[in-house]
Amino acid sequence: MAQEFSYPKHRIKILLLENVHRAARESLTEAGYSVTEVPRSLPTEDLLEAIEDVHVLGIRSKTKITAEHFARARRLLAVGCFGVGTNQVALDAAAAKGIPVFNAPYSSTRSVAELTLGNVIMLARKASEGSTKLHRGIWEKSAKGCHDIRGKTLGLIGYGHIGQQAGLLSEAVGMNVIFYDQVKRLPLGNAKPVGSLSELLSHSDFVSIHVPAISGGGALIGELELSQMKEGSYLINVSRGSLVDLVALRSALESKHIGGAALDVFTDEPKTNQAEFKCELTGVENVILTPHIGGSTEEAQESIGREVAASFIQYIDNGTTVGAVNFPQVNLPAFPNSHRILHIHKNVPGAAKEINKLVFDLGANINGQYLGTHKDIGYMIMDIDRELSSEVKENISCLPTNIKTRILY
After folding, report:
1. What local confidence, expressed as pLDDT, does residue 3 receive?
2. The CATH number of the domain covering residues in 8-108+297-327
């Protein structure tokens, strides 16, 4: 029997910003939802106005969603970051308003790993420098300072999904791989863990960063860390711009202690393609600068679009929050002849007991129930006898721990 949703699907407004891949729109419209697209990020004031009436908001990396935005979001059910990072969203503020935030942590993994290996090869052969000179009409063929990468050591700072893929690709072309991660990771292939960051830096011919930004925005690689790297080694950052002190890196490059660098991410990235780009490393020899293209392939963007859209559909259709970065991970199979209640509440002792007592006092039968917690938030999916579902919903909404309660179907 088809589910009868408490709110018509075609009236749910979904807003996608920043040229999210068309695959997302296709998936959502096929599922019966209304989608509006804007091919750019919105300034703070414009987003404050737009967010008031949308039910679902999809963004990429340029749009910033603050606590002020969530305070104005009267109808917002969910936010999707069409990429890996979620640091552009005030995650705790979203959770406090009962809004899960989804992302696509794996869809661009291979694309970023391939760019990492490409940068290793290009740096070792000084290819970008040679290309720049040829564009200026200068033919300068030389083997000086150029190297094969076979037999060289790649040091991975962070050994999550991207780090692992970068390691496997690098081994396939004959490199040795070592890694350092604060979390114990199972090595893939012949990769070997090391005990400290300084050990990794001192043993690597190429160092590649694959970790999230540091809380507070501090640099992971500064003057000290650069001094610990091997003479003539190379640094690659396709992770977060704030992780590298570019002033210190420029000094290390100019002194020839560091042989080259490749950066795909920057602390201050232009808001639009028309804005001017400024960087401390422009004009420095054997430095590759790319405009945050790690996940910018057609294949990755399509996969990201479908992954986040699928998360939206699962959440709106049945309340599933698996994959949310700021919310309890909850999934409950549908029980026939039931109404489904979604209850988001403050995570305090006794909250579940109060809910179940209320249901018992009303004489309702719970056909299925799943409760999950994450930090200060509790999230319960509950399938209830149809006859009393409205009363249960109204009474639960009156509990002092209530954040948001609704009947899904």
Report:
1. 55
2. 3.40.50.720
